[in-house]
């Protein structure tokens, strides 16, 4: 019996290209990925709009829905639910100046049109969750755009989505940098404030990725706790990251084991998942993995969550409570380290 229900995106099985080198593995067919996900222990899949409908720019209306219906059958056969749909607003050349915050109106229109399609796809696939990773909404050149106006554009774009469909909810996935230098929505605080400025803030929450918090110099569990305190933690991307460097998407627990423990402990203690939330991963295989071994970052991440969950279940809560009372936190630290090593 698994502690949580887990989800993963098809981009988490990949060919290993990075900024400085080409692919090193064969592309795995979509159907094979589904099979692998199920075998490893996932319950649901996360989708970009164009994971659901490749070449999405070529489809709209009924043609779009026909494509989605075929996918729905395939996912049903594979026994995987859909956690969310996310418009991929960072690859098309029309999103190079930001998507919702582009200076040119026709480019912002394109972003809004893509978002509309993402909602249609989500409806057909039976999920209410739209994830917005605002990849290029930020700047390199401070004078390039008004930061104030940009926030207004973001609010307007989210309002448009909330109006289009009264049931969908928006999960903003904050990230401080990469691919932009300075993101307009770098942290969970920014994301929630943005949500509170929309026409229906009860339908705007967050998806927190461990590595995105680390890239902001913050503790992932504390970021998640802040969102939980507002009842706004509607999704997570568990992964890991070695310091304030490039975005690494390392397997969960592979770098910061203590912080990984804190995240699992928090999610368990607060009953995360009881309202249907999934524990999602967003992890990449190391480039050195061969084709047949390029799935281990997924199984290793689930292994880490479950092993840490065992550690949470076997904590001596009386001891912890006593240390909280006598403030002997050195003793508490020693206990936790010993517990994790034991
Ligand atoms: C980038 C990310 C993204 C998002 C994904 C879904 C490609 O750092 O984390 O992964 O998670 O687009 O919103
Ligand atoms: Mg990421
Ligand atoms: Mg992510």
UniProtKB/TrEMBL annotation:
<keyword id="KW-0119">Carbohydrate metabolism</keyword>
<dbReference type="Pfam" id="PF01261">
    <property type="entry name" value="AP_endonuc_2"/>
</dbReference>
<keyword id="KW-0859">Xylose metabolism</keyword>
<comment type="similarity">
    <text>Belongs to the xylose isomerase family.</text>
</comment>
<feature type="domain" description="Xylose isomerase-like TIM barrel">
    <location>
        <begin position="35"/>
        <end position="261"/>
    </location>
</feature>
<keyword id="KW-0413">Isomerase</keyword>
<dbReference type="InterPro" id="IPR050312">
    <property type="entry name" value="IolE/XylAMocC-like"/>
</dbReference>
<protein>
    <recommendedName>
        <fullName>Xylose isomerase</fullName>
        <ecNumber>5.3.1.5</ecNumber>
    </recommendedName>
</protein>
<keyword id="KW-0963">Cytoplasm</keyword>
<dbReference type="InterPro" id="IPR013022">
    <property type="entry name" value="Xyl_isomerase-like_TIM-brl"/>
</dbReference>
<dbReference type="GO" id="GO:0009045">
    <property type="term" value="F:xylose isomerase activity"/>
</dbReference>
<dbReference type="InterPro" id="IPR001998">
    <property type="entry name" value="Xylose_isomerase"/>
</dbReference>
<keyword id="KW-0479">Metal-binding</keyword>
<dbReference type="InterPro" id="IPR036237">
    <property type="entry name" value="Xyl_isomerase-like_sf"/>
</dbReference>
<comment type="subunit">
    <text>Homotetramer.</text>
</comment>
């Amino acid at each position: 019996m698994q502690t949580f229900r887990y989800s993963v995106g098809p981009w988490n099985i990949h060919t290993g290209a990075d900024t400085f080198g080409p692919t090193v593995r064969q592309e795995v067919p979509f159907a094979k990925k589904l099979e692998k996900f199920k075998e490893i222990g996932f319950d649901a899949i996360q989708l970009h709009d164009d994971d659901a409908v490749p070449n999405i720019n070529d489809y709209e209306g009924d043609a779009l829905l026909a494509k989605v219906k075929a996918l729905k059958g395939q996912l049903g056969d594979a026994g995987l639910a859909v956690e969310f749909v996310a418009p991929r607003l960072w690859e098309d050349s029309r999103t190079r100046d930001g998507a919702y915050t582009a200076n040119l109106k026709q480019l912002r229109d394109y972003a809004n049109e893509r978002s509309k399609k993402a909602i249609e796809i989500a409806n057909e696939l039976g999920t209410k969750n739209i994830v917005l990773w605002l990849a290029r909404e930020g700047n390199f050149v401070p004078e390039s755009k008004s930061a104030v106006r940009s926030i207004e554009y973001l609010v307007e774009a989210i309002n448009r989505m909330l109006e289009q469909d009264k049931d969908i909810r928006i999960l903003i996935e904050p990230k401080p940098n990469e691919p932009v230098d300075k993101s307009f929505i770098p942290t969970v605080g920014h994301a929630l404030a943005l949500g509170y400025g929309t026409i229906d803030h009860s339908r705007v929450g967050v998806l927190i990725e461990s590595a995105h918090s680390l890239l902001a110099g913050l503790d992932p569990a504390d970021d998640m706790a802040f969102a939980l305190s507002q009842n706004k933690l509607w999704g997570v991307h568990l992964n890991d990251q070695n310091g304030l460097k490039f975005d690494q998407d390392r397997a969960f627990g592979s770098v910061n084991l203590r912080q990984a423990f804190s995240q699992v402990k928090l999610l368990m203690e607060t009953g995360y998942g009881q309202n249907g939330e999934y524990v999602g991963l967003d992890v990449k295989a190391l480039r050195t993995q061969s084709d047949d071994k390029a799935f281990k970052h997924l199984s290793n991440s689930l292994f880490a969550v479950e092993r840490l969950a065992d550690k949470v279940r076997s904590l001596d809560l009386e001891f912890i409570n006593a240390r909280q009372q006598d403030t002997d936190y050195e003793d508490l630290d020693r206990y936790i380290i010993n517990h994790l090593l034991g």
